[in-house]
Amino acid sequence: MNKSTYETPLNSRYASPEMQYIFSPDKKFTTWRKLWVALAESEMELGLPVTQAQVDELKAHIEDIDYENARKHEQRVRHDVMAHVHAYGDVCPNARGIIHLGATSCYVTDNADILMLRDALTLIREKLVEVLRRLRKFAWEYKGLPCLGYTHLQPAQLTTVGKRATLWMQDLTMDLDEVNFALSSLKLLGNRGATGTQVSFMELFDGDGDKVDELERRIAEKMGMEAVFDVSGQTYPRKLDSRVLGCLSGIAQSAYKFAQDLRLLQSFREVEEPFEKSQIGSSAMAYKRNPMRSERICALSRHVMAVYQDAAMTAATQWFERTLDDSANRRLSLPEAFLATDAVLELYANIADGMVVYPKMIEKRVMENLPFMATEDIIMESVKNGGDRQEIHERVRVHSQAAATRMKAEGLESDLMERIAADPAFPISHEALTALLAPEKYTGRAEAQTERFLTHTVDPILAKYDAVDMGKISV
Fold this sequence. Notes:
By secondary structure, the chain is mainly alpha-helical. Helix content is 65%, strand content 4%. Strand 1 and strand 2 form a beta hairpin.
């Protein structure tokens, strides 16, 4: 391995081998050759002077790409597509004259990009579903465990650990919808020529537009695609890249939300990400258990959200039928967005499969705050027992503020319940007060909502993709 040149950490540290392959030279240039085969074979079927022997020769040499030969051709012709046309022709001498017949560079570059986007989105979808599968188990296990809910990062009403997980999952189901929509909207560019008018193919087919349309239909079928864009310039609309990277940005937003929540929960010592037996949290502070996976999710997710801007700006700045300032940008932005999103989902799945919950710590934090949340019930119970509502309300206000001051100014535990129990203004027994402090009384429908979401929304998704191989999570 050459250690004197830069290598993207997306390959060396983060992304899975499967996603790396989709954007690899082998995948790209074998796809180009498959498109050239589909073009030649379809032209032969529609009566152009292409022979079966030439098609067979092209098919026999899809995989044996001589990259050094292609590099030499590119040095000479200064054109990447024509360099590979010549390199293909060198191993297919009998078919050399019909390779790329009637096509422009975008026939292979753009159609191959669409096919790679399809494969990459499909892999992303599989990993999204796997994350949902793992979170589903976690949410069901802890659907009824009361915990502090927060608004403004301040303790609010109680929720449950499982209910909070459904919020993470709901974001992912929305992302899954977007991925499915993006996949359904993918179309090949087809064979369009320099400005999208198909004039070169009209020449080849003596002005027969039906044959030109049929050529595109056959190529799409051979490449496993159902549709071709009805209209285009020289390239497929870069709006599609913006849509696809928008999906990835959405996934990154969801993953960031999850990871940031978990970082906060780990700080509270309520829930932790997996921590290996020999893992080092800090080079200086040996006791630390840093949420490094969650932090990495946030770091990579920020990159995905930033790269999305590339696609948006590229879509906005295309001139008329095409300009070439998209090319170098897309070589960076499309693979990096997918490689980073892939890495994020790998990490997300790993964390979801091994989160550690500390019920006693959760209970401790609940009980520190629950007396304040229970004051409304205390007021109502006291009034039912004959107390004066306005007097009771004022006494609760005074005691609450005193207990809160004790906690914040003196670092002591809340004594709100003891204050209320000792106050004769409250016609309520100590036993009744204790009964009002059962945490499950204050979680509302959190458990029922969790069950309903998992059974009505998540389980049908998991069942739909149950036959799909989900063994692609490698972290």
